[in-house]
Amino acid sequence: MTQTRLVMPSHLNSYGALFGGYMLLWVDEISWISASLDYPGCRFVTVAMDRVEFKKSVHSGQLLEFTTERIRTGRTSATYSVSVVRQCLESATADHVFETSVTLVRVGADGQKQPLPEDDE
């Protein structure tokens, strides 16, 4: 799955670069969307995010392209790799700025883990 976000001035810190928290929010959100699309009707919560390392700064007006891919499925959880590419429209350049893996677990209304449905793929 691929999703694009526009970095706006409200996303920036006092040095004019993207707050890391926004990147993490968007990574978490797109991972949850991917899991929800892969397993319709299931309720997911994030349980882990691997290494957090920002490779390059991101500024207002740049686009961030988030790409997710399911890389592991457990009994109750699914793990997605997330890669983020920064696109500068003015110079037509693209750079890899962030990557991580996010693990989400399926839970019931009571918050307890539940098995994932059988994968038909």
Quick summary of this structure?
The protein has 121 residues and is of the alpha+beta class. It is 16% helix and 41% strand. It is elongated, with a radius of gyration of 16 Å.
Question: What does this entry look like structurally?
Answer:
With 121 residues, the protein is of the alpha+beta class. It has a single domain, classed as Hotdog Thioesterase (Thiol Ester Dehydrase, Chain A, Roll). It has one helix and five strands. Strands 1-3-4-5-2 form a five-stranded antiparallel sheet, covered by helices on one side. The radius of gyration is 16 Å and the shape is elongated.
Whole-number count of domains: 1
Question: What would you give as the CATH superfamily?
Answer: Hotdog Thioesterase
Helix content: 10-25%
Low-confidence stretches: none
Query: What is the number of helical segments per DSSP (H or I, 4+ residues)?
Result: 1
SSE order in H/E notation? EHEEEE
Give the C-level CATH assignment: Alpha Beta
Number of strands: 5
Largest sheet: 5 strands, antiparallel
Shape: elongated
Summing up helix and strand content along with how strands pair, one would put the structural category as: alpha+beta
Strand content: 35-45%
User: What's the mean pLDDT score?
Assistant: 95
From the 3D coordinates, which CATH architecture would you assign?
Answer: Roll
Q: What gap, in angstroms, lies between the N and C termini?
A: 16 Å
| Neighbour order of strands in the largest sheet | 1-3-4-5-2
